Amino acid sequence: MFIGRASVCFLSSYRETMSLYAPTYGSSGSKAFTRRLSTSFAPAYHHHLAHISSWPIVRRSFQDAAAAAATVPAPLTIPPFTLGRGHVCGVLAAVVGGGSSSSTGAYIPIRSHNHSYSRSSYSHSVHSVGSFRAAPTPRELGFRMPGEYERHAGTWMAFPYDPYLWRDEARPAQQQQVAIARAISQFEPVWMLADPKVYNVACDYFREVSGVEVIPVPTNDVWVRDWGPTCLVRDDPSTGDREVAAMHFDFNCYGSPAKMEHGLPPLLPDWSRDRAAGRSLPQLAGMRSFECPLHLEGGAVHSDGDGTIMVTEESVLHWSRNLELTQQQIENLLREYLGAERVIWLWKGMVGDEQGTNGHVDNVAAFAAPGTVLLAWSDDPVADPHLRTICQRNLEALQEQADARGRTMRVIKVPCPNPPLLVVPGDVNSLAAAAQAAGYNTCQPAGRRLPASYINSYIVNGGVVVPQFGGQHSRNDEEALVAFAGAFPDRKVVGIYSRELLLGGGNIHCLTQNLPAAAAKRSS
User: Fold this and answer.
1) Of all helices (H) and strands (E), which one includes residue 486?
2) Among 186, 275, 336, 337, which is least packed, fewest CB within 10 Å?
3) What is the DSSP string of 152-168?
4) Name one GO molecular function term (predicted).
């Protein structure tokens, strides 16, 4: 059996496997593989995908904007085997950080989002598959995660609708989501995914907005940054052409299966529509996809586009995500799947985010450019001592670690809202008790701290969209806009009030996912 250095190869559920291979690899071998993986739900899945793909608005929007690549690697060579009804292999055969192709490496299991975490069961599954040839990783193929400052083809967003997630039948959240989408559409196209339940409602909101197209795609929630595709690019320096591809983390709703095993409630009782929606987007855009075996979310990583990514220990090393992997193994996989050379580890994310994303980096630090980082900052030892400690330790981490090109980081401190934002009685969802009974763990009780940060902003073509909180934080809002204007002198900085969406646990960066432009131009 041959598996190259740090190469990964795995089999997941039929739906996920088909989303990765069936639309992409057209060889007779992969077709035979598809036929062998016939299960009871295959016809329904393919009907669903074909139905979405047939919508002219979907084909036109994504294909025109993405201009994605046609070159594809050889398919996996997999011996015949039988996959029983409803069975999920969920195996990963990997040499992580391994040496030569003949080196002895450890089998690393994938914890499927609905299945057991037992090492022994995965060991059995690995050996039952037999020998196969590993596909190359994105890094081996020359892909990298671009910086957000690089030019976009457009932005994906999703429309809020679930009354168990959003108060007052989600109307306040919808209005703020519309305002954010309108602001972004002044700079680049926006594709708003709307669950069929509220497709007509979303269309009514955007009927007069030429830069926003509403696309009917089933979703659970709005955090496209986390469950949507993390896009990669591969530039051809001789022609200036760029291939855009998608990379999917193994999204399991912020470690919900492991949390449930320990008696903790998941954020959502079901996240299957979000997971499927994220995988449908690159298919509709005609892009190839890569599956990363890490249980992570897009908001857990930030890239400078020049070989360096940032993460937090709190989130990426959280016990509910990838407990069977060491920090070094996780770092190796991040490098392979994001095309990175250097991983900078910050300590923690924002106070108030411990039970949500478990401290995503995109709420505390963001690359403005290679070598330049915007950092959430608080130095008030009385009003916010815990956040002060987090900010100082994150700053120390940035000062102690050079980037992939050996640069010492230039850090721009962006003050956090002070005093901290808290949930007030009027914010509480009147359906909180019913939501909890239905398996939701997202309703915020009065008095709870909100993970408010201006870093959770979004860089667009020629601009930056920054959260605003208003009221007693108006002075902080202005200070943040000044800081962003200094960091982005060639971009227009736009502030958007977004406190309602913060009640759901995230903000503007969490709500958006950028599709890179197919031209290898990095300026705005």
Assistant:
1) helix 474-487
2) 186
3) EEEEEEE----TTTSSG
4) agmatine deiminase activity
Alpha-carbon gap, residue 49 to 86, rounded angstroms: 19
Compute CA distances 249 → 151, 232, 296, whole Å. 23, 13, 6
Mode of pairing for the β-strands spanning 289-291 and 302-303? unpaired
Neighbour count for residue 172 (Cβ, 10 Å): 17
| Structure token digits, residue 202 | 């979303």
Pairwise CA distance, residues 153 & 189, whole Å:
7
Q: Is 510 a catalytic residue?
A: yes
pLDDT one-digit tens code per residue, 186-230: 999 999 999 999 999 999 999 999 999 999 999 999 999 999 999
pLDDT, tens only, 298-331: 999 999 999 999 999 999 999 999 999 999 999 9
Q: Output the six-digit token pair for 139.
A: 């890094």
Closest CA to 503 of 270, 202, 173, 269: 173
What sign for the dihedral angle of Cα 16, 22, 24, 28? positive
Q: Which are the contacts of 327, defined by CB distance < 8 A and separation ≥ 6?
A: 313, 317, 345
The rounded distance, in Å, linking the Cα atoms of 420 and 99 is 49
Residue 419, preceding peptide bond in cis (omega within 30° of 0)? yes
Q: Determine the Cα angle at 357 with ends 299 and 199, to 5°.
A: 70
Checking if the pLDDT of 513 tops 60, the result is yes
Residue with tokens 């009685």: 425
Q: Which amino acid makes up residue 492?
A: K
CA geometry: angle at 186 spanning 467 and 477, to 5°?
A: 20
Q: What radius of gyration, in Å, describes the C-alpha atoms of the chain?
A: 22
**DSSP SS3 for 290:** strand
Q: pTM, whole model, 2 decimals?
A: 0.78
What's the rounded Cα separation, in Å, for the pair 333 and 106?
14
User: Distances from the Cα of 303 to the Cαs of 308, 362, 376, 463, in angstroms?
Assistant: 6, 10, 17, 18
> 128 to each of 2, 94, 138, 455, how far by Cα in Å?
16, 15, 27, 47
Q: Can you list the domains of the chain with their CATH numbers?
A: 8-129 (no CATH), 152-516 (3.75.10.10)
At residue 368, what are phi and psi to the nearest 5 degrees? -85, -30
Structure-block tokens of residue 428: 């509480």
Q: Count of residues for the chain? A: 524
Q: Are strands 463-468 and 458-460 parallel, antiparallel or unpaired?
A: antiparallel
- 483: tokens are 């800081």
Report the 10 Å Cβ neighbour count for 177. Answer: 25
Give the contacts of 61 (CB within 8 A, at least 6 positions apart).
Answer: 154, 189, 191, 213, 215
Q: Are 245 and 20 spatial neighbours (Cβ–Cβ below 8 Å)? A: no
Structure confidence at residue 259 as a pLDDT band (50, 70, 90): very high
Strands (E), 131-270: 152-158, 190-194, 212-216, 230-235, 242-248
What tokens appear for 189 in the block?
A: 């196209």
Cross-strand partners of 230? 247
User: Which of 253, 292, 443, 510 is the catalytic position?
Assistant: 510
